[in-house]
Design a protein that fits this description.
The chain is an alpha+beta fold and 173 residues long. It is 53% helix and 8% strand. Helix 2 packs across helix 3 and helix 6 runs antiparallel to helix 7. The longest helix has 37 residues. It is elongated, with a radius of gyration of 20 Å. The N terminus is likely disordered.
Length: 173
């Protein structure tokens, strides 16, 4: 039986744990993508470098040393300061991930990309929904008097993102 014809199911929660915010962009790192595609990181990076013209800076970038330190601080490791890495990993944006299926040219790559893009779209929809809900609440605040301020404050606190719920990497002002 050919493994490439088997449907690839990747849970969204699994992907969400591997999406990082670096340089203000949601990205997946090369090592996580290689694992999802079922190839070694070296093979994935070689395919990208053979087709580097397909990966401009808004598709892919390499983490710098400071970003690497911040990323490593997200993990508890006792032995390796570099988490087994010889060089800083590459980060792929949603656009870069979409381009990977044309570079890797396998049915698994296409199926994995579909799952990843769906996860990115779902995350964008969630963020949009919260923004629209917040705007509606602000309109209601203006419409009703102060007796409902306590209710509106409580709703705002519920909508506010709890600290530490998102894993951020890199410099944040």
């Amino acid at each position: 039986m050919n493994n490439e014809n088997i449907a690839v199911e990747i849970p969204e929660a699994f992907l969400e744990q591997r999406i990082f915010l670096i340089r203000g962009k949601k990205v997946l790192l090369d090592r996580d993508l290689a694992m999802l595609y079922g190839v070694k990181t070296k093979v994935l990076n070689q395919a990208v470098h053979r087709n580097i013209e397909r990966f401009p800076a808004d598709f892919m970038f390499q983490l710098n040393n400071d970003e690497m330190k911040n990323w490593k601080s997200q993990f508890v490791t006792s032995k390796s300061l570099r988490l087994g890495l010889r060089k800083c990993p590459f980060a792929f944006t949603e656009l870069g991930i979409a381009m990977l299926s044309s570079v890797l040219m396998s049915s698994r790559a296409i199926q994995v990309n579909i799952s990843i893009v769906r996860t990115f779209v779902r995350l964008r929809e969630i963020m949009s929904t919260h923004k629209e809900l917040r705007e509606q609440i602000e309109l209601l605040e203006q419409k009703y008097d102060r007796q409902f301020m306590v209710v509106f404050d409580a709703i705002k606190k519920l909508l506010a993102q709890p600290p530490g719920s998102r894993r951020k990497i890199g410099f944040t002002p």
